[in-house]
Amino acid sequence: MNKITINTTLFLAVILICFSYSSQKTFANQASYKVGASSLNVRIKPAIDAEVIGSLSNGTLVKVLDVEYDWAKIEYNGQTGWIASHFLFQSSSFEGTTIQDSSSTSVTVAADGVRLRSGPGTGFSIIGYTTYGDKFKLIESNGEWQRVRLDNGKSAWIAGWLVTTSAQATSQESTPQQVAAKINEALTGQTIIIDAGHGGQDPGAIGIGGVFEKEYTLRTAQLVVEKLKNAGAHVIMTRSSDEYINVNKRVDISRSYPSSVFISIHYNAHENATAKGIGTYYYHHSDKEISSAIQNQLISQTLLQDDGVQFGDFYVLRNNHQHSLLLELGFITNQHDLSAIKTQNYQHQVANAITEGLINYFN
C-alpha cells in the first residue's frame, strides 16, 4: 500500500467518523432526562434484540451515563441498562434553580395537553405537559410566551394564547373556555387535503419484518385529520381505507380545491439500513416556507434525524397547485426509526407537529 493510498484511507475514515458523530442526537453525560413513552424497555445491551430486563413508565426521570449510537446507558435496579435514546426528553428546566418571585399574577391553563417548554418558543424542547384548569404563578413574559413557576419551585415556559391570567379573569375579558375556543378556530377557513400514500394493491415500501408503508400512512393520516379538524380546518382525505387510488385521482381531488394545502404522507425506505430521518419535500419554490414550518415542528416534537426541506420532483407535487407538500416521516427499513414509528406516541407527535406547523405558518 503506497503513501497516497494510506493518506486517502485515513482521510475517508476521519470523514466517516465525523459524519456518524454529527448524525447522532446530543446527550450530556450525567444529565437527567424524562421518558416520553408509555412503556420503554430497558435492555441488557445496546441492541434491539438484546434481553429486556425491565421497563420504564412515561415521565420517569433517568440519568444518562453514556450514549452509544441511538442507545442511552442508565443505571437500572443496581445494574447497567440500555434504552432507546429517541424516547428521552430533556428535563433541565425541572432541575434548575428554584425561582423566587413576588408576582401575585397567576395563569390558568385553558386547554388539555398543553406543552411546557424550556424556553419561549416552539423551537425549545418539551419538558412536560399540563392540562385544562391547572394554575401557576406568572414569573415573566416574553412576547406571546409566559414563564411560570411550577409546584416544585422550578420554571417552564407556556404559550400565552393557551392560558388566561388572573387579571383577564377578573375583568372577564377572556375565560378559559373562550381561549380554548380560539385555539379550536386557529385553522378556520383553511382547507387541507390529507393524502395517505399508497393503499390497496399498492403496499408502498416494505420495511423490517415485512411491514407495509400503506398501513402506517393511513394510520398517521387519520390522526392528522382528527387534529386538524379540532383546530377548525376543513379536511378532505384522498383515501380513508385500504383502497388503491392512482396518483391522477389524488391530484384531481386536490386541484378541485385550488386554495387548499395538499399534504401527502409517506414513510421512506432504502437498501442501506442505516438511512434514517424525516424529510419534507416541495416542488413550487413558494412552498419552501410552509415546508420549513412543518419540518421544524416534526423535528422538534419527534426528535428523529432532520433530513431537511428539499425539492422533490414527485407527480403529486409537480402536477398540483401551490401549497403542495410530501412528507417522508422516517425509514421503515431502519430499526431506530421503525421502533419509534410503531408507537402511538410517535403517531400523535407527528399529527401534533403537522397541525402546529400549519398554525404557525398561517398565523
From TrEMBL:
GO molecular function: N-acetylmuramoyl-L-alanine amidase activity
Enzyme class, broadest EC rank: hydrolase
EC number(s) stated in the UniProt entry for this protein: 3.5.1.28
GO term, biological process aspect, one: peptidoglycan catabolic process
Domain SH3b, residue spans: 30-92, 104-166
Superkingdom of source: Bacteria
Keyword Hydrolase belongs to the record: yes
UniProt keyword list: Cell wall biogenesis/degradation, Hydrolase
Pfam family, one: Amidase_3
GO cellular component: outer membrane-bounded periplasmic space
Protein's name according to its UniProt entry: N-acetylmuramoyl-L-alanine amidase cwlB
Organism in which the protein naturally occurs: Lederbergia lenta (Bacillus lentus)
